[in-house]
Amino acid sequence: MVPPNVHIQYVDEVVNISDGESFELSRQLGRTEGIFCGGSSGTNLGAALRVARDLDKDAVVVFIICDTGEHYLTKHHSDEWLKSKRLLEPQKMTAGLISGTKAANAPQSLVSVKPEDKLAEALSKMDELGLTQIPVLEEGKPVGSLRENRVLAKVVRSRHLLEAAVSEVMEESFPVVDVDASAQEVTQRLQSSPAVLIEEYGRITGIITRHDVLDLKLGNTGSLA
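The chain above was modelled as a monomer; its predicted structure follows.
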């Protein structure tokens, strides 16, 4: 709808955004940013994202949150309403969702060690939490990893390594995937690595192991699509 009071001479481009995309982006603003808004704000975000694709990476894009979601509780903020209108897309399994479906006895937050930690302390932490691998982070960045079976094999040959720093025995870091990476990308990475790290807004926030994915496939914690 184009209102009669629009000043079309100031409009440089018109971007068409579907109802489905508007509603999904409106709901996404609520889930990820805590902004409870209406469908028109979702439309604005959709147009902003389209425009941003063709801009320089240093460009700043501003869009307007022009409505509130309280008037749409029984509309696009309702799963049942969206289903009745055939506007609800099946939820795609992502790295973030896989990480959020870990078994109840698994650590729910990222556990890591530092390069300067003693190996004995790192092994003790792994044993206490039942971990077979652990990432090594320095100032929040991945710099290496420890795998229990390989570390123990080294310790059996050279017991003095228990007093050594983690940096002396760590191996290469686990691969990193974005929090929104697809389940397919995660499983592909796990073919060559026992675990992958999850990055969100430039920070390492989680880890997915082969065991986590196996639990999903077996239906122990959810479903892997």
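The two ends are 38 Å apart (CA to CA).
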